[in-house]
Amino acid sequence: MTSSDANPTAPNPTAAVLIIGNEILSGRTKDANLPHIAEKLGEIGIRLREARVVPDVPEEIVDALNALRARYTYVFTTGGIGPTHDDITSECVARAFGVPLERNADAVERLERHYAGRQQLNEARLRMANVPAGGILVDNPISAAPGYQIGNVFVLAGVPNIMQAMLDSVLPRLRGGPPIHARTVSCELAEGRLAADLGALQERYPQLEIGSYPYFRRGDFGVSLVLRGTDEAALDTAAEELCGIVRTLGGTPALTIGAKG
Amino acid sequence: MTSSDANPTAPNPTAAVLIIGNEILSGRTKDANLPHIAEKLGEIGIRLREARVVPDVPEEIVDALNALRARYTYVFTTGGIGPTHDDITSECVARAFGVPLERNADAVERLERHYAGRQQLNEARLRMANVPAGGILVDNPISAAPGYQIGNVFVLAGVPNIMQAMLDSVLPRLRGGPPIHARTVSCELAEGRLAADLGALQERYPQLEIGSYPYFRRGDFGVSLVLRGTDEAALDTAAEELCGIVRTLGGTPALTIGAKG
User: Is A122's CB within 8 Å of B24's CB?
Assistant: First the structure.
């Protein structure tokens, strides 16, 4: 348990994601898990505050995990829990927590059921039942090999559909906060024309996070102005003001609920 | 300059990417820069060893940048160099290096040329000419506002096509190493069947990095076994051995040059 876990009245639980795998750092694989985790956590009021990508190197994984779990309410790791030699997440998590890595009987049973009559439950596959002592299993409805929770850390698969299923099953365990809502005002004005008024709007609404994201697509360009926060009334008022600013500058604002657009 | 820069004979230059922006951590924007930077650096023998995503919070940016620039040969930052209030990268880079943030005359000229007769070069846009003292400009052929290099840090735009153009112009400045090559052996076997032989192959080729990446697509499943390293002869021999392993286990290997497949 981290110090933030010890205070259940803390208003905004936080999270970090630790992406483990050479394939992300070589550019071979484009991570698809971070945006998904970010959205799901945002819906229950947990703010993702940091993400790190580290290679399959034990010291790197251990150090990053220890840094993140000390700072944030929750940490989600993705990747490195399969049966091959490059799957070293569990031994690193055990090292980070200073506990032994044990063959988990419940996990072995799940693997036995999954492989029965299909394929051999060999030693490589049994490695997927190795869990740091004290770990609580996380269901894997797709390929059986479980993830787990230990302390404030959730160890999840790297394959996106498996990771998503695992995340769905752990979300109810988490202490959420007020959900984070968003409004997006898009327009064809250049960022530089809006900047001064936008900065002043941010100062009037310090409880909101206002971001400006230019886009260039299909020959079109413009900017999406995103307002985020837990206070929906303030969001609505600020979004209206922002539409007014856009109109005053000669633009045509398009307001949408949510952070897309 | 870092200690690794001070040693030009170090065989493998390293790099880290620092992705700056709330939009990545909220899930609104899916980062597209990391895989591109990873691939381009790999081609010239620079290994990407870590990536971090931090929010638009000065202390977070300063701390992450200082941690990364002390550890790796090069650091590439993306995002936060536009004209709006949430663009705070340059002031943070100046703080991290302990130098003043100055209005760069060359950058102002570039902006003047770009905006002349089109739009007003207002104060918000002029902020994009603020560069930490000692910074060397990086061309932006798309929207003029430059990136820059300071020490071993390259400060680049977040918008992918601008980032890519900036990166292209800085690659020739970098000290590369032997290019990293890859071979991929794909087959329809399950990872768990291959794991033991694959681990033994990794032990026989410690100079290569062998990764196992299962895939599930269009109802198909299988695994891509990726071998990476600078020694092409070893790559070819190891890939041949791996094809033999797959065949022995009853699979049909498909060998491709490169890390895709």
Answer: no
